[in-house]
Design brief:
Number of strands: 34
Number of helices: 25
Largest sheet: 9 strands, mixed
């Protein structure tokens, strides 16, 4: 067999299928596009799901790719075997209603025997037990005898994912020889030993499985094949493990170099080297694709990969930050095939550095605490870590449960997982109880939730702001009542309502519910369950009874302001992705009448230039007065149109799509303007961090933006008046004043330095001497705290072995500094104690080290006497020291 590098194998495969009229496409990112049902791309066919499902048309009926993939189902096996990995590359060729089994098998055999020159007599295949057609093709095309065509059952050789397209598959194996096997005479593919290595899977998509479990033949059949690049490279390069191939080994060697260990000398260290190598390959690509560490979803997976890598690095003896160094090697090795790694190099390293610093602090504390707990349990003869202890580590110290589990297992303990989950549930219960005590959403929502089946409300707020309805139910203090009286707070359920209930980051509408005998002011609206909409507020006049006919009226001004902010939020989201990159993902939002707030994934502060570009891009859309349209579509159809979905958000079968021309398209249930021109003006007012890898932008629109501009102009006008200049000259005038101030500050410092030099010379002459030891206790004026400290520096240089007690009167207080030379401090004199004694006797506070103490005194009238008294005590100590010194 020829020895091919990983890059050569990738290129040969893609070029081979290009020669068979396949369109070559680049790898898709690891984040599935518009597919909130999947965390990551875990197979080559995932980006093409819409084509296989018939929901979109492919750019060509034949495609070929090398797709980067991530799977974490077997994460615990990584490092312990030669073939398990979370990150890998998958070579694939695909047909959408074009060629089928005959061509797929023909080209697969041609590629492995003619291009890769694998020995034909060592190749075996498996087929689905009933797939006579595939078996016949392998016999006719490849000349394989029956004994090398192994029929396996549905579990091994039939691909399906529930309802949808499915079909049998055929896998190609290389016989690595009896020396790798189990020794059984009937050993063959499917045995489970290491003799036969599967390297290519051909899936024949020929059926549609319906909800009744029936397999119906597809009119347009498809092909989906997958060959693991690393596994095939290991075969061609004659190495035992995917960690030894040329695309992976340099990374492992870099980790080993950092750790100062040699691969292959210690089994346990080898496991850790492989874990770090694999996990950082995955983490590097995830960061490149815009994922940031977090506590749920994709962010949690990235955080887990990084933290497992750090922990295994510690096992290797790596006690310093190292992730960004390894990432640099990964980028160097892989950037030829994935140029986006170079483009995102700085961000990748920044993400890894930040998470490493965060976790190292957590790991140090958590590891120490866990070891203490395990030591205590072991001394008691116990072998089970209680769930409460595991939960305390997780809840109080942020120590991941998975790491607790791993470390406990390594120490010979089991973990009470049920106890951990019970403690987690108790915490959730406490959180729910707290919400009930402190929030309008607590007891009220719980009280209404069980009534969702009895009552429902029809929402008409997209079409109108006022609607006639009937009171379906009333509640007060969590109990259903027949009526509400003036002055009472409670909740109202209507059969029809125009009020928008808080959802998706948008606050609820406010307004009034008016009946013939009274009026109810709505302050909050929520959906406790199902189609039930509850209006919370207060009766301001008369009474309201169940069955009353009412007019529900939304505050139109507040609704308009909220709609402006919500549409602006969509524009902002798109502008962020345009300016910062496609890694930007919504991480939270608030849409209120007075402002909007948008949280998004990004790992550094935005520059002034970026903020200006984002603001300009939004305002361009506003000034273009683009129509804002909404439509309700089946979820799959909406995603097919390119509408953005939020991962983890629960969507029904039908969704509402909000489009701002061709600029923005999102799934959204909120209220919006009809045209962007209604937004008026968009103005960013702040940008900050809200946590690791998450930034927040706050902005205003419409009336709030106009008020902001008016306020800013008023400030400018006032400044212009104070500076006696025009508004357009304020900045220049302030810059000139600042430069004058800086120049005056420099001149002042020169004068202060001269004053300090002169003062130091004068004071040095006043120092009392005790046979070579000196004492200076005095009060000065004109020195602030820092200048006084600098003055003692000068005096120390002049006086040598000395004790300095200096006070500088500054208004109604005095700054204090005490200094003791090193030799005198070693002899027992303590500057911190001296300054504390002076400060406390003069109504202040002070302290410090043996050689330097600082403080402040408030009773400046008592200060001279205190200073003299303490100085006399020091003088006595110096005299005593001299008496004990040998005569010179």
């Amino acid at each position: 067999m020829p020895t091919l590098s990983g890059n050569e194998l990738r290129e040969k495969y893609l070029r081979f299928f290009q020669g068979k009229d396949h369109l070559r496409l680049p790898s898709a990112p690891l984040i599935p596009e518009n597919d909130p049902t999947l965390l990551f791309v875990g197979a080559g066919m995932v980006p093409f799901k819409p084509y296989f499902l018939g929901k979109a048309r492919p750019p060509h009926t034949r495609l070929t790719t090398c797709q980067r993939c991530l799977r974490t189902a077997d994460i615990d096996q990584v490092g312990h075997t030669a073939r398990h990995a979370t990150f890998f590359e998958m070579l694939g060729n695909f047909s959408f209603g074009d060629y089928f089994k005959e061509e797929a098998i023909t080209w697969a055999w041609e590629f492995v025997t003619e291009i890769l020159s694998l020995p034909k007599d060592r190749l075996w295949v498996t087929v689905y037990q009933d797939d006579d057609e595939a078996a016949a093709y392998w016999q006719r095309i490849a000349g394989l005898p029956n004994e090398r065509i192994v029929r396996l059952g549905k579990e091994d050789n039939f691909w399906e994912i529930g309802v949808g397209p499915c079909g049998p598959c055929s896998e190609i194996y290389l016989d690595r020889g009896p020396g790798k096997g189990c020794g059984r005479p009937d050993c063959k593919p499917g045995c489970g030993c290491d003799r036969f290595l599967e390297f290519w899977n051909l899936v024949f998509i020929q059926f549609f499985k319906n909800e009744a479990g029936e397999y119906l033949p597809l009119e347009r059949k498809g092909i989906d094949t997958g060959m693991g690049l690393e596994r095939m490279s290991a075969l061609l390069q004659g190495v035992e493990s995917i960690f030894d191939v040329d695309l992976v080994r340099p990374i492992l060697d870099q980790v080993a170099k950092i750790a100062g260990v040699r691969y292959g000398e210690d089994k346990n260290k080898d496991v850790s080297l492989r874990v770090v190598t694999d996990h950082l390959r995955g983490a590097t690509f995830l960061a490149a694709d815009g994922v940031l560490p977090g506590n749920e979803g994709r962010g949690y997976v990235l955080r887990r990969l990084i933290r497992r890598a750090i922990r295994h690095g510690r096992r290797l003896g790596i006690d310093k930050p190292f992730l960004d160094t390894v990432a640099a090697t990964i980028i160097s090795v892989m950037a030829g095939a994935y140029p986006e790694l170079n483009a995102n190099s700085a961000r990748i390293k920044e993400v890894l550095r930040a998470e490493e610093a965060r976790f190292r602090a957590t790991l140090d504390q958590g590891t120490q605490l866990l070891e203490q707990v395990l030591h205590r349990l072991k001394s008691q003869g116990r072998t089970v870590l209680p769930g409460e202890d595991a939960f305390r580590l997780y809840d109080t110290y942020g120590f991941p449960f998975e790491l607790t589990l791993e470390m406990a297992t390594e120490a010979g303990f089991t973990v009470d997982r049920a106890g951990f989950e019970a403690a987690m549930e108790r915490q959730r219960e406490r959180a729910r109880a707290t919400r009930g005590e402190t929030s309008y959403l607590g007891g009220e929502e719980d009280a209404w939730a069980h009534l969702a089946g009895r009552y429902s409300s029809r929402f008409v707020g997209y079409e109108m702001l006022s609607a006639a309805g009937r009171v379906a139910a009333l509640a007060r203090n969590g109990e259903l009542v027949d009526q509400l009286q003036a002055g009472e707070e409670g909740q109202v359920v209507l059969d029809v309502t125009p009020f928008y209930a808080e959802a998706g980051g948008q606050v609820a509408d406010t307004g009034t519910i008016t009946g013939a005998r009274g009026q109810f002011v709505v302050s909050q609206v929520y959906r406790p369950a199902g189609g039930l909409i509850v209006h919370s507020g207060k009766m301001v006049s008369g009474r309201l009874a169940v069955g009353d006919e009412v007019l529900a009226s939304v505050d139109s001004q507040e609704r308009g302001d909220t709609a402006r902010n919500h549409t602006a939020t969509h524009l902002l989201h798109k502008a962020l992705r345009v300016v910062l990159g496609d890694h930007v993902r919504q991480a939270g939002s608030l849409v209120a009448p007075d402002r909007l707030r948008f949280d998004f994934s990004h790992n550094r502060p935005l520059t002034r230039e970026e903020l200006e570009a984002i603001e300009d891009l939004v305002n361009i859309q506003v000034m273009a007065d683009i129509p804002v349209t909404t439509e309700v579509l089946p979820l799959e159809e909406a995603l097919k149109t390119g509408a953005m979905a939020l991962f983890g958000e629960k969507y029904g079968e039908e969704v509402r799509v909000v489009s701002v021309g061709d600029f923005s398209r999102e799934l959204c249930g909120g209220t919006h303007v009809q045209r962007t021109g209604e937004i008026g003006l968009f103005k960013i007012v702040g940008e900050e961090s809200t946590g690791a890898g998450v930034r927040r932008v706050e902005a205003v629109t419409g009336r709030a933006a106009l008020r902001l501009v008016a306020q800013r102009f008023a400030i400018l006008d006032r400044l212009a008046g104070l500076l006696e200049t025009r508004v357009d000259e304020v900045a220049g005038r302030v810059e000139r004043l600042l430069e004058q101030w800086r120049e005056l500050s420099r001149e002042r410092q020169v004068l202060l330095d001269k004053l300090a030099e002169k003062t130091a010379d004068e004071l040095a002459m006043k120092a009392r001497e005790f046979d070579g030891l000196k004492l200076l206790a005095t009060t000065v004026r004109g020195f602030d705290a820092d200048a006084l400290l600098a003055l003692t520096d000068r005096l120390q240089n002049r006086l040598g072995e000395a004790v300095l007690l200096l006070a500088s009167v500054d208004g109604q207080q005095a700054h204090l500094v005490a200094r003791v030379s090193r030799a005198l401090a070693a002899a027992g004199l303590d500057a911190g104690r001296l300054v504390r004694e002076i400060a406390e006797a003069a109504g202040g506070r002070g302290g410090g080290r043996r050689e330097l103490g600082r403080g402040a005194a408030r009773d400046i009238h008592a200060l001279p006497g205190v200073l003299t008294r303490v100085a006399e005590k020091v003088a006595a100590q110096l005299s005593s020291l001299n008496a004990s010194r040998p005569s010179r």
